[in-house]
Structures are given as C-alpha cells and as structure tokens.
Amino acid sequence: MVNIIAVSYINTLPYIYSIKNSPYLKDVDINLQVVSPALCARAYHENRYDFLLMPTGTVDTFLNNDYLPYGIIANKKVDSVLILSNNFLEEIDTIITDSESVTSVKLFKVISKYYLKKKFNFVNSSNSLFNKISKNEGILVIGDKALLNSQMYKYSYDLAQLWWNYTKLPFVFAYWIKKNNIDINILQKFENSIKWGIEHRNEASVLCKEIISKEKWLDYINNKIIFNFTQDSLTSLNLFYRLSSNHEF
User: Fold this and answer.
1) What angle do CA 149, 152, 154 make, to 5 degrees?
2) Which of 79, 91, 104, 210 is 20 to 30 A from residue 158's alpha carbon, by CA?
C-alpha cells in the first residue's frame, strides 16, 4: 500500500482530484489522507508516508533531498492568505490566528520582523473570524475563509503579495516530498499523476462546488496558484528557512 498524505488546503484539490481520478494510479493500492498541517508534520517525523505534501512552515529546513518539483506556490497576490482588519496594518498590534495557519503565521512573523520592522502580538482563537475585533487587531485567515470573507473587513493584506513586495519571489506554501527508498515505478506513476492533475486542475472544481463558485475557483486555481517549481521557488524556500531560523518562531 502506498501512503499519500496531503494537507487540507483548498488549493490542494487538484492534487486530490488527480490521485483519485488519474489513469496512472488506477492499479496502485492507495491510502490517501487529507489532514491538518500539524498532522502532516507528525506523519513526516514518524515516517508514516510514501508521498507527503509538506506545509512549508511545519519543518525548520528545506527537505531538498526528498522534494519533488511540485507544490502550492503563490506568485504575488494569492487571495487565500490574508490579514483582515478595520485599520491600517501600521496601526494594529495584535494578530488573531487559528491552528490551521501554521505556515502563514510563520510567514507573517518573518515579514513583520525583517521587512515591516514591527512587532505584533499573536493570539490563537478558533472562532475569530466572525467575532467583533477591536481597532488595534487584525485576523489571519486562509483558504475558503479568506476567499469568501475578505469583504467583511475594511482592509485586506495579502501575505503572498507582501512577500513578493519585499523579495520579488513567489512564496511556497507547501511542497511534495517522497520517502527516499520509494520504488522507482511507483515514483514515476505518482509524478505522472501529479502532472495529470495540474493539467486537469479545472476539473477539480467538482470537489469545491459547495464552497465557492466555479468561476471563482477557475480564477483562483489558474491565476493565483502555481504548481510547478522554478528556480525562484527554490530561492524563495531557502530564503524563508534562513530568515525563520534566525528568530524564534
């Protein structure tokens, strides 16, 4: 059995769709788990995977010996990772987060320390989105919560855009890794399936039709997300890990 673990982001759906529907894995016994970032990291550390979509912020260094050149990458504005507030970013001092946003919290801490040169307080609250917030607070939201609710607040700050503004690099939110002793035939089938999913990403709209409209999904998945690695992706990953390792995040 081949164990595949993917993080439960809305932008993971093209990969989920391909694993379930591509012709390349039809004859492979698959155990697919779609879990939280924390459980992805646990599966990695406990070596309970053959392929794993690793959320960038849940490990401290780039797993360059095991990575595959596919992931969840944002080039400039991504729309699904936002700081929402009723005040200017410069005027707030507290960021409300939840347990889903491990990578995004670390990303904003890096941005705030090295580029904004501003210190924020971080408060965890799983029900923060619909609560009334004070003038000095902002809320970090990701995924469909961000895509559907940004209009609830006066100001919206896109973290991928902020990263681009300061680095001129795309941000890698997650990337695929493989077990180092994986069978070469299984690896080839998996990579073919991933490529198939990227090519057929529009069809994955069937997996989120009850969350967002097809039109919004197609715009998001085709214009906001990149799935294939470039040299800039690798440069960005190494920069992020270097900056985040220099501070206690």
Assistant:
1) 125
2) 210
Q: Is the Cβ–Cβ distance between 57 and 102 less than 8 Å?
A: yes
Residues 64 and 85 in one domain: no
Q: What is the length of the chain?
A: 249
Q: Residues 150, 151, 153, 158: is their CA dihedral positive or negative?
A: positive
Residue 241 token pair:
């890990």
| Structural domain range at position 102 | 81-167
Q: How far apart are CA 91 and CA 69, in angstroms?
A: 39
Token pair, residue 89, equals 């970013």
Residue 244 DSSP code: H
Token duo for residue 195: 């490529």
Task: Confirm whether pTM is higher than 0.70.
Answer: yes
80 in the Ramachandran plot: left (φ > 0), alpha (ψ -120 to 50) or beta?
alpha
* pLDDT single digits (tens) 26-40: 999 999 999 988 888
